[in-house]
C-alpha cells in the first residue's frame, strides 16, 4: 500500500534527514508501506450462517415455524 499526498505524489522517507516527503508521482518500492497491528483478529465461525439458523436445534425449529 502507498499513501498519496494532497499534491498527487506518493509519500516516502527522505534518506538525508528522515523527513516524510511527497515528491514522487509514481509509487515504487520506496513508497510502499506496511502496517502492523497488535490486535487479535476475532474470527466468527458463524458469520456466514444466517441468524435464524444460529443456536440450538429447538431455537432453529421455532425460527422456521
UniProtKB/TrEMBL annotation:
Specify the superkingdom. Eukaryota
Q: Which InterPro entries match?
A: FRG1
A single GO molecular function term of this UniProt record: actin filament binding
GO CC annotation terms, alphabetical: catalytic step 2 spliceosome; nucleolus; striated muscle dense body
What the entry lists under Pfam families is as follows: FRG1
Write the protein's name. Answer: Uncharacterized protein
Species per Swiss-Prot/TrEMBL record? Rhamnusium bicolor
> From which lineage does this chain's organism come?
Eukaryota, Metazoa, Ecdysozoa, Arthropoda, Hexapoda
Amino acid at each position: 500500500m502507498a499513501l498519496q499526498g494532497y499534491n498527487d505524489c506518493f509519500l516516502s522517507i527522505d534518506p538525508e534527514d528522515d523527513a516524510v516527503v511527497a515528491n514522487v508521482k509514481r509509487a515504487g518500492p520506496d513508497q510502499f508501506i506496511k502496517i502492523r497491528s497488535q490486535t487479535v483478529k476475532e474470527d466468527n465461525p458463524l458469520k456466514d450462517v444466517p441468524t435464524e439458523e444460529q443456536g440450538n436445534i429447538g431455537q432453529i425449529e421455532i425460527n422456521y415455524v
